[in-house]
Every structure is written in C-alpha cells, then in structure tokens.
Design a protein that fits this description.
Blueprint (H helix, E strand, L loop, with lengths): L2 E5 L5 H8 L3 E6 L10 E3 L11 E7 L8 H11 E11 L2 H17 L12 E2 H9 L5 E6 L4 E6 L1
Parallel strand pairs: 1-2, 1-4, 2-3, 4-5, 5-6
Antiparallel strand pairs: 5-8, 7-8
Amino acid sequence: DDKVIDIGCGSGWISYYLQNKGFNVTLADMFNCNQTELPVVLCNDYLSFKDKEFEVALLVSVLHHSINPKKVLSEARRVAKRVIVLEETYTNLTEKFWLTFSEWIGEAQLGMLKHYNFYNFYSANKLREMLKTTEQKFTWNALHTFRRGLYEIK
C-alpha cells in the first residue's frame, strides 16, 4: 500500500500529482490553503494518525515555517516508516534574503500570506545539524540547482 502523508501540504499540488500517479495521499496542514479537490486534515503539533500508518511522510518546504521543526520531524517519523524532507537552504545572507523574498512573492500569488507569514530558513549546515539531533538516521543529497536539500530519514 503506497500510503503517503503530505505534511504542510500548502496548495496541495504535490499531493494532487502523486494521487494521479496512483499513490494514496493524505494532505495535512495547520491551515487549509488547498487549491485541489483533495480533502485536508487540519492539525497542529500532533498528527491524529496511528504510529507507522504511512509508508512515507513528505515535508516539502515546511520546516522554515515551523516554530518547532524538531516536533514536526518527530511527528512525521512517528506516523511514517520513511520521511523525506525537501527544504530550501542558504549559504550566505544574500541567498537568505532572496529565499525569503521569493517565498513571500510565491505565497502572495497563491493567497497564502495570511497563514504562512513565519520564515526561518536554515543554512545547509544548520539544517543537517538539526536533523542529526532528531536521533534518527538520515541521508542527505543536495540539489544544487535550486539550493535545496533533499533529506531522507530512515
């Protein structure tokens, strides 16, 4: 069973794509900004799912919106056998500025600014250190073209 949970699903388009590819996808977010017909489970710090209910938890551009990213990672790990994190990172202050600015512009275009107005981008090193402190094994692959890090927690 290819059950996937998209934590912090935002507009829902990634889940929509996966659903059309045959995956059984559950959308979860603190706010309903979904622009697809797929239902969204509203949640805060706790995900109301059984332990290991999902094969994969996706966190795509989520951690920089979280006040407590370690809690988000912990809950993702609890409900899924594998966690995949795709997060924008920066290497200098100019990149951090452009990440924040482009995120703000993108969310303004989607009408999501009223919900997602907290940005805490990480350097690649800081994000890797945070993932190490989750006490779970993870692998890291950098997608240098977009300055995004792809992390899988096993």
